[in-house]
Amino acid sequence: MENLLARTHNPDVLTCIANLSNDEVFTPPEMVSAMLDMVAEAWAADHGGENLWANPDVTFLDPFTKTGVFLREITRRLVEGLEAQIPDLQERVNHVLTKQVYGIAITALTALMARRSVYCSKRANGKHSICTGFDTPDGNIWFERIEHTWTGGTRESRVDPLTGDEIFIYTGRKCSYCGARENDYRRGDDLETHAYAFIHTDDIKQRINEIFGAAMHFDIVIGNPPYQLSDGGFGKSAAPIYHEFVEQAKALDPRYLTMIIPSRWFSGGKGLDDFRDAMLNDDRLRSITDYLNASDVFAGIGLKGGVCYFLWNRDNRGECTVTTHFKDHAPSIATRPLLETGADTFIRFNQGVTILRKVMDYGSNRSFADMVSSARLFGFRTYFKGREAAVDGDLVVYQNGGTGYVGRDEVQSGTEWIDAWKIFVSYAAPGTGNRDTYPHRIISTPFIGQPGEISTETYLAIGPFETRTEVDSALSYLKCRFTRFLILLHKASQHVTKKVYSFVPQQSWDRTWTDEELYAKYGLTDEEIAFIESIVRPMEDE
User: Fold this and answer.
1) How many whole angstroms separate alpha carbon 406 and alpha carbon 414?
2) Mean pLDDT of the chain
3) Bridge partners, residue 333, by sequence
4) Do 165 and 159 contact (CB within 8 A), yes or no?
5) pLDDT reading at 8 higher than 50
6) Which pairing describes strands 101-105 and 60-65: parallel, antiparallel, or unpaired?
7) pLDDT at position 19, please?
8) Is the pLDDT assigned to residue 437 strictly greater than 80?
9) Tell me: the pLDDT tens digits for 129-144?
10) Residue 26 to residue 299: CA distance in whole angstroms
């Protein structure tokens, strides 16, 4: 039995699995260990130095287990830690697996994977299972196919092609719990529905009791939730769902909650604004460990904006310890408020906090964001294509892939910008492959739009300006490393929306701006300048 437990703690297989999928991101064992160490340290600090792994009464839940890597590592630590209290190995293993370690799988396949990983058998009560205390094949790793709850949509009349009878169907319906589109996720019995049990309920405590057949309370909830579902938008558009798992986990009222999730929640957007506000105003969020490059955690995974894991401590409130992993720099660690005065987003760089404070203390109350247009300023979608040849009176339209021409009377909005000078900058940040590599430009190369030039929603417009001198000045400012660093502080994904310019102060548009002038104006130290220049690449004229 001892040898069997040791063998099952070989991380090689799960490390390989962790590198296979971009749809459901599997967690590397090294990250699991770091998260569990963090929880154990918090437990000891809150319980007079007590060893978490020597407590036979603590209960753990992974509500979205995939490979079972969290549950397996928890089991290994408890089996080692409880040796003095429960000397008999088989009795100890049975106690841990039947009374302390629980999981909810996200698919039928991951349920089998998790049971095989934790119990060493796809059936918890099978002859090869290391646990002899189960009388069901599931054990404490549960999975049951759940269907979405379709609501809304449009009722349409159709003719049955076989009978000629009038029939009624609904189109455009979505799941009331997760927002999945019926057209995408109504599936036969041979396909997964991706209707996750943990979030498809109005009463999570009751749901947990139904799943495990008893009044359960979990001390520690831990895991790596699914991140997104396709939302039927343009291209590969997807809506985040990981925040729903976090909120449901909080509703279970555990002592500790830790999850690894995308870092883009720092700045909100696309259904995340309320979640961001709740998290940043919650003084039970005591630790955030942030990786700017997701590939440092999930090898080969292209996840823009990085990833983070956090510790939520129900009974211990205070400021948050922020640890930032960035490139080859030593991890930066600081204990600070989650929200800086005047900020509506989390500042992920500890070094950036002092720089932002200097900018805000300078006293400018005019934000550059006030000069940035909303999306689709002129009313044309990304896929719009203007005419290839101009006719008299046509406007130039900057579009995806180049330029075209449209008539002035075709422009339905933003008309006050047409005959002004402006700056165009892409809504999407420049590509960095599967990695958020640094230093990089932060934004795509901006360019001047002359009077008589407009754009599709591929670009945002900055302005409007009356003169060429003003627009040249603003363009020089936007190309400064200092300016783009302030943009980065509010930017958590590849999208460069109007709000990411919120920390950038306006200047006087009567000169050519340089980084040296801006560094001096805001009193930056040599160390702060060096940090900016390690992150932001010079923007050459192109």
Assistant:
1) 14
2) 88
3) 323
4) yes
5) no
6) parallel
7) 39
8) no
9) 999 999 999 999 999 9
10) 10
Backbone angles phi and psi of 351, in degrees to 5: -65, -25
As given in the structure block, the two tokens for residue 46 are 């809150």
Sign of CA dihedral 85, 89, 95, 100: positive
Output the pLDDT for position 25.
65
Q: What percent of the chain has pLDDT over 70?
A: 91
Q: Are 401 and 384 in contact (CB under 8 A)?
A: no
Q: How does pLDDT run across 83-108, given as a tens digit for each residue?
A: 999 999 999 999 999 999 999 999 99
Preceding peptide of 439 cis, ω within 30°: yes
Dist CA 499 CA 369 (whole Å): 6
Residue tagged 């720099």 (tokens): 329
Of the options 3.10.310, 3.30.1490, 3.40.50, 2.60.60, the CATH number for the domain spanning 2-144+200-267: 3.40.50
- HSE at residue 390, side-chain half, CA atoms within 13 A, is 12
pLDDT digits (tens, 9 = 90+) for 378-419: 999 999 999 999 999 999 999 998 999 999 999 989 999 999
In the block, tokens 């549960």 appear at 142
d(CA 469, CA 168): 62
Once rounded to an integer, what is the mean pLDDT over residues 36-57? 97
Q: How long a stretch of residues is the chain?
A: 542
Give which of 83, 79, 82, 68 is closest to 124, Cα–Cα: 68
Cα–Cα distance measured from residue 423 to residue 429, given in angstroms and rounded to the nearest whole number: 16
pTM of the model: 0.81
DSSP 159-212: E-TTT--EEEEEES-EETTT--BHHHH---TTS-----TTTS-S-HHHHHHHHH
Question: Which burial class, exposed, middle or buried, applies to 371 when counting CB atoms under 10 A from its CB (0-12, 13-18, 19+)?
Answer: buried
Lowest mean pLDDT among 166-180, 216-230, 314-328, 424-438: 424-438
The answer to whether the Cα torsion of 332, 259, 249, 40 is positive or negative is: negative
CB atoms within 10 A of CB 116: 20
Q: Which residues on neighbouring strands pair with residue 404, listed in sequence order? A: 397
Kind of pairing, strands 166-171 and 154-159? antiparallel
How close are the terminal C-alpha atoms of the chain, in Å? 66
Task: Please return the burial class of 186, using the count of CB atoms within 10 Å of its CB with bins 0-12, 13-18 and 19+.
Answer: middle
Mean pLDDT of all residues in 168-183: 88
